[in-house]
Amino acid sequence: MPGSEGLPTHTAVPQKAPGDHERAAVGEQAAAPKNHFVRISKEGVRVGSPAAPNPGADSAGNFTKSPERRPERHRESGKHQGILASRTASAAPGSLQKAAPAKGPRQGGTAGARQGVRTGRPAKGSSSARSPGTHRVLAVDATLAPRDPGAPGQFGHAVAVPEDKQEEAKSRWKEGNFNVYLSDLIPVDRAIADTRPAGCSEQQVHNDLPTTSIIMCFVDEVWSTLLRSVHSVLSRSPPHLIEEVILVDDFSTKDYLKEKLDKYMSQFPKVKILHLKERHGLIRARLAGAEIAKGDVLTFLDSHVECNVGWLEPLLERVRLSRAKVACPVIEVISDKDMSYMTVDNFQRGIFTWPMNFGWRQIPQEVIEKNKIKETDIIRCPVMAGGLFSIDKKYFFELGTYDPGLDVWGGENMEISFKVWMCGGEIEIIPCSRVGHIFRNDNPYSFPKDRIRTVERNLARVAEVWLDEYKDLFYGHAYHLILKNLDVGDLTQQIELRKKLQCKSFKWYLENVYPDLEAPLVKASGLLVNVATARCITVENTTVALEPCDANNEDQKFNYTWLRLLQHGEVCVAPAAPGGSPGLHRCDGRNHRLKWLHGSLARPELMEHIAVEHLPQPACLEADQARKTLRVNACDSSSPHQKWHFGNYYAD
Ligand SMILES: [Mn+2]
Hints:
The chain is of the alpha+beta class.
């Protein structure tokens, strides 16, 4: 997921001696009633649907109810229902339960200790075919006793560039936009510390986990970094679960990624390399990999990662539990500067802010405490970062994979996230699965097209297909896209797919999956009062006038929309030339001649004004005291006749 991800908050891993991975056993855990989600609210844990977060609209679509302006703290804590996944997995011992007496084979050694490579499929439980039995999550790690314990970066430690190599390191940085010099110094099969929370190594997983095809796409990836990514998969995954590792070379320009890579990987029969004959972009490259994948589950990984011990089984366990679960590991941080492996703060969810910027957000401490959320608890995620996840292969194709209209990369994580949630699936972060990732500030490779333009177009496409009436929020926060008149291409197929899959509305998604997102449908609503006259704008037949305010008069209710319209039902107040009177016009969010600027920080001197946007000289809506009419006049920042207040404001 080059570039698109925000960096989660992280801390250096406490340095440990090799093999010192003993962890305290998890305490006794009471099983919650099964098949419900724990919801978190101000009142505490409860089950059921949360209240609608948005104010109601009248029949004309104008927002009339005044939602209480609650203090932010209250709001935040009240809107964290549904963060946790179901605490019980299934009738059989699930991954969140304390180790039950294992029916499957147990790995030897002390609890929580890492073990060397174990090969072979665990024997099926002897009890019955319906209950295949479980085993403690395997601690496969071929790097447990590293070949060279003194090598640079061993055990995930930071490496310093020698004084006489500074210039070389600096000049090589651009090869990958991280410390390529150091990457080349570090063993491709280095050991890293087990960063899993206490209790993870005790968890039970089923003996009949599905197999997975690992798909890694890359363009011009740094040799040592790509190799380390592949080695980490091979070194720390139970071999019987890896159907194959598919490397998709998206038309790299580097010679070493051709025959040399083929030759190197030929020593690992499970590694397959797909050299694409032209640049596909990340999205289509992933599809190329998915199409040849033979495993039950697809696991997408970036090509600059290090999978940690026990990373795979917890992901596959969730997909086994429900094929509609999309399981993401916790993404840890491999420093781009010193290549150290750092853990991240727990309890982080993948979220987005408008206009669809992906980010990480910590679950508030009070919510964690109140609900006794444990570090090992699975976290439901409104959106995923996009680079690292496991998904049932058949389910992925049933969902229509990625929208084929999306180009190169950008926004595909939003698309798949909305699609999964709204069409019956779930996205989860599995704290017991951890994968390190080099977060880079910029893409090292050239973007085949105008990068910003591509990402914007992709996001607009996602908004058009998935956001319903909330797409105005997207455009309101990325207003330049409206001005650009972006062509998002044909949406017919995607809209058909949404119908065919009987996906829920975006409103449902907001209420049930991401209730803490601020998503008011309009910026302001209610009576529109003039400061000087204390009169209100009123619709009278086909025009607007200034009348005494009456909270019960529907003709005085207006919305100020994200697209900057002064809207009353289907009609909008239309600006006039300076000196003229405003009229009414059928609303059209794309018509710039209907737009007014109000409450905009871009024009602090006109915050309370209602200014005409499309004129070269700013003109403002003004109340004529004598004639009780409205007109457009040259803006005067101090004139109370040009100042207006809505009954309710929902956004700045
Ligand atoms: Mn990446």
